[in-house]
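cron nightly-structures :: item 1 of 1
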Amino acid sequence: MEIEKVKMDIRERILKIFQQNRKNPNDVFNEDYFLTYLIPNPSQNHNLKFIHNSFKGNNRHNNFLNDIQIEFGICFSFKDKDKNYKLEEFIERVNNLILNKKASRAALNYRLKHIFHSGRFITQNLVILLFISFLWTINITTKIIAVLIFLTFNLGAIYFYQKEKKYLNKLKERIIN
């Protein structure tokens, strides 16, 4: 009886966060594909990749999962983030992570360890620098634009890194306490 009460509380809290993160909070949704209803008019096949293919959809999905993690003091694995859970499966997964703090800490430690992908960062910078070198022989305006693109990319990467690190540290505090 107590277990059912706990699961009902988890369900209510998840649905509250779900409604807060939806584009159209009061629209009806199918519980079997509830994550796809974070955006209006999800695809007919309810594929989560449809959400990930749009910036706004991906942002809504990530914000929803981040809010759930902070609310319950849990951390989803990368596999969890890519799975299209039914509502009841999602509630069960959240409950399991609440009961198994070790799994949440392991997922969080993995994310903290792999927050900065130096290989990808270096490769992207080399590609941009190669592109700039081809443009370097053109006029000064093209050089300035190329350098601005390079700087914008790097500042964006630094901003993302700092934002993600701040969030993960906040989540770490929430999981530990």
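cron nightly-structures :: done
The CA atoms of residues 35 and 113 lie 27 Å apart.
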